[in-house]
Specification:
Length: about 160
C-alpha cells in the first residue's frame, strides 16, 4: 500500500530493523583483512537521529586498520540474547562503507549511549566513523527474512 503522496509505505521489516539498530548498544563489525580474510570484532554503537550507525574506533584496533584499506563493512545487530531459542529472534546485518566523521553532534550522540567513551575519545588515535548504509538483511524469526534498501532501513 502506498502513502498519500504515492511513495511506498515503509515495510514492517524496515521498522523492525530500525528498532533493533536503535535498541542495541553494540554490534559485530566485519571488515576485510589485507590478506583477503574476513575479520569480525565487537564494537560499541550509537546512531544519528536518522538511524545511521556511529562507531568510535582506535587506530590500534585490527578492524580500523582493515577499514582504512577497504572501507566496506558489515554490522550485525543481534536481538536474540534473552531468547531460549535464538533462531526465533530478530537480527539485522547492515552492509555499507565506514566514513570518517568529525561531527560534534555525532560525538554527543555516541556519549549519550556510552558515557565511558569520554575517558579516551580525545586520545589522538580515536576516530568516529559513520556507516554509509547500502542495504540491510533482516531476519525476524523463522521464514521472516527480507533484504531492505538503505531508505527502508534508516529513518
Amino acid at each position: 500500500m502506498n502513502n498519500i503522496d504515492n511513495t511506498p509505505a515503509p515495510s514492517v521489516s524496515g521498522a523492525a530493523a530500525r528498532r533493533l539498530i536503535r535498541s542495541c548498544d553494540r554490534a559485530v563489525l566485519a571488515t576485510h583483512r589485507t590478506d583477503g580474510w574476513p575479520y569480525a570484532s565487537l564494537v560499541l554503537t550509537a546512531t544519528t537521529h536518522a538511524g545511521v550507525p556511529l562507531l568510535l574506533a582506535s587506530d590500534l584496533a585490527e578492524h580500523t586498520c582493515n577499514l582504512r584499506a577497504d572501507d566496506r563493512v558489515s554490522l550485525l545487530y543481534d536481538g536474540t540474547g534473552a531468547l531460549e531459542n535464538p533462531l526465533t529472534g530478530a537480527r539485522v546485518s547492515l552492509q555499507g562503507r565506514a566514513v570518517p566523521l568529525k561531527s560534534p553532534h555525532s560525538r554527543f550522540r555516541f556519549f549519550s549511549r556510552h558515557g565511558s567513551a569520554r575517558d579516551y575519545v580525545d586520545f589522538d588515535d580515536f576516530n568516529f566513523f559513520e556507516i554509509d548504509v547500502g542495504a540491510a538483511h533482516i531476519i525476524a524469526g523463522f521464514g521472516r527474512i527480507e533484504w531492505l534498501s538503505a531508505n527502508d532501513t534508516l529513518a
